[in-house]
Amino acid sequence: MNQLPAPPGAHLWRWTRDPLALLRDGAAAGPVFRLRLWRPAVVGYRPDWNRAVLGDLDTFRSARSLSGLTPYLAAGVVAADVPGHTARRDALNPHFHRRALLPHEDRLAAVVLPPDGPFEALSWAAGAVRRMLNAALFGDRCDPALLAAFLTPLDRPLPWPLLPRPRLFRRMDAAIAAVLARPPAGSLAAAVAGLPDAAAELRVALAAGYDTTAHTLAWALWHLAGAPRWRAEELLPAVTDEILRLYPAGWIGSRRAVRASVVAGVPVPAGTLVLYSPLLTHRDPDQWPEPDAFRPERFADGRPAWSYLPFSAGRRTCLGAHLARLMLRVALRPFCTGDLRAAAGDPAPAAGITLRPAGPLTLEYRPRRARPARPADPLAAAAPPR
Ligand code: HEM
What we know:
Helices cover 41% and strands 13% of the residues. The chain has helices at 11-17, 19-29, 47-54, 76-79, 84-92, 98-101, 105-112, 121-138, 144-151, 166-181, 188-192, 198-226, 236-246, 278-282, 321-332, 378-382; strands at residues 32-36, 40-44, 60-61, 117-120, 253-257, 261-263, 266-268, 273-276, 339-345, 349-351, 355-357, 361-366. The protein has 386 residues and is α+β, with helices and mostly antiparallel strands. The chain has one domain (11-369): CATH 1.10.630.10. The site of protoporphyrin IX containing FE has 24 residues, from helix 4, helix 12 and helix 15. Its cofactor is heme. One of its GO terms (molecular function) is heme binding.
């Protein structure tokens, strides 16, 4: 592994300051490069690497990888490894399938509450996603103030999302347990109520689905404001695909190798932190022509496997991918009519626990108003304003 190219500088220091620049420099050094973090790490971003790492759950484990660093993700299916992981996913998957989620659509649409006038896209999106997650997961039965308190640390820069918050987590778990005791019909809580560890699975789904979806939604609004020809309901899937390509919220994924192996021709010793980066994969000019351009039409022929991984791939693929797509479609739909403009902002990606716009993103939205009814008396219509 020591033969691999490496970006310049003190890696751990650079990782804590600006990991995206470090990754970019690494990618320029070669398709697989090494990093000296708190343990030796190796990063690849070509399809053969992604397939080898994500396809072998036995060698590349979640335990003691990056997700375990935050209490928000150190539980439930995220923290499980094979064989326990397989059983958990088999139990959860049917409830998160596209078709199983369709009955949620109207309930989600009812809580989107589009703005009217100037708004900041990140904070509006955060509120809308909190309301949609409350509707889908808990049938609206979770206290919105508690939900906001629980999720807000994820909106803050590192190291905030990494700090333990035992009291807050206990309050959230108690609230989820109360919902699970009498779960509202049709909610995901009702669907998973009988499963082992249901409360932990719901808490992890809530955290994993929050800032990821909110940041994606904010970026989508920004780009829709700048490219009005894409503001059409039937084009939203391609727009969403392209936003997720340009800004994959899960910008880095990690596993820990539990045995020595050869990955895409590269020997990887046991104990190595094995990283894949949807961001590097999606911005690789060898895989995506003009990778920095917003061009939803590139998805006309579908999504290429292993070089498009906003939701990862393989058996650990995002549990909430269909829920995320549903929330995004439902939340973006109102903005396809009316007047949407970007006023000011910085959409450049910045790395936190998820990728987020440097922001703020100030936009303005005026919904299309219903036409005033034609006055019955033509003279009344001609009367001067008082
Ligand atoms: C745009 C929004 C989202 C993005 C970009 C996203 C991205 C991802 C990625 C890249 C992974 C794999 C991480 C890894 O390699 O370890 C993942 C896993 C996961 N996501 Fe999402 N996610 C999103 C929304 C959601 C939502 C709404 C939920 C709620 C159900 C969710 C729940 C999960 C869970 C439970 C896992 C762990 C799966 C496993 O380890 O088997 N995500 N997500």
